[in-house]
Amino acid sequence: MSLNITGGACLLPEGFAPADLRIADGTIAPPGPATRRLDANGLLVLPGIVDLHGDAFERQIQPRPGVGFPLPLALADTEAQLLANGITTAFHGVTLSWEPGLRGAEAWTALLDALHAARPRSLCDMRVHLRWEAFNIDALGLALDAIGAGRVQPAGVQRPHARHPAQTGRPGGAGEVQRTRGRAGSGVPRPGRARRRAPGGGRAGPGAGSRRRTRGRAADGQPR
Fold first, then answer.
1. Among 9, 58, 158, 180, which residue has the fewest nearby CB atoms (within 10 Å)?
2. Which residues fall within 8 angstroms of residue 196, CB to CB, at 6 or more apart?
């Protein structure tokens, strides 16, 4: 199949300029006989866009806490969105963290396997940009194996978003990942809020503290 694209502003080495082109057997060529014609008047004609780093992929898997999509479906929907916006190569920023949930080792391995399985039928070249969080020494082997196998291209090291026990010198717990529980999909229950108690055991209201602070003054502001 061959296709003439006419009337568009083509991205050339010197910039955008009006030009017609033909695609034949997967090759870009000057206009000529073609089986189809596309009127690109008012449109930009350019090669496939390369998205070097995207942060939105986690939301494709889990749009909100507790709601998740199977990886094959999430990848197919992601690919459709990328291609519709002219992106033919995309690097998904994926964090390998000590946090549970979307950023844990199990999710990391499952994503790499799903991408590998989908690659033969994918039209968009989707790749992984590894974001490896410091202190995640236990997962260093996983990261190095993926890099060595070519399943990860660029990689970077970043400071953790949630505090790791190594930062504080004390055992970790639910509170350590609470700040990122929704993003990570960890399912860690929200700790109960501490409530102030007024003297005598009653619950302190919104203005209880200020009332206690002003109790020793008369209406004219002078100490009693």
1. 158
2. 203, 204, 208, 209
Distance (Å, rounded) from C-alpha 202 to C-alpha 205? 9
Q: What is the mean pLDDT of residues 86-109?
A: 89
- 24-54 CB burial, b ≥16 within 10 A, e <16: eeeeeeeeeebeeeeebeeeebeeeeebeeb
> pTM, whole model, 2 decimals?
0.64
* Assigned token pair, 135: 């202190």
pLDDT of residue 73: 93
Torsion-angle region of 25 (φ positive above 0: left; ψ -120 to 50: alpha; else: beta): left
Secondary structure class of 64 (helix, strand, coil): strand
The residue ranking higher by pLDDT, 198 or 105, is: 105
Question: What one-character DSSP code corresponds to residue 103?
Answer: G
Find all residues with CB under 8 Å of 114, minimum gap 6, and list them.
Answer: 71, 72, 75
d(CA 133, CA 138) in angstroms, rounded, equals 11
Domain ranges of the chain: 1-47, 48-184
Helix H or strand E encompassing 124: none
Are 203 and 195 in contact, with CB atoms under 8 Å apart? yes
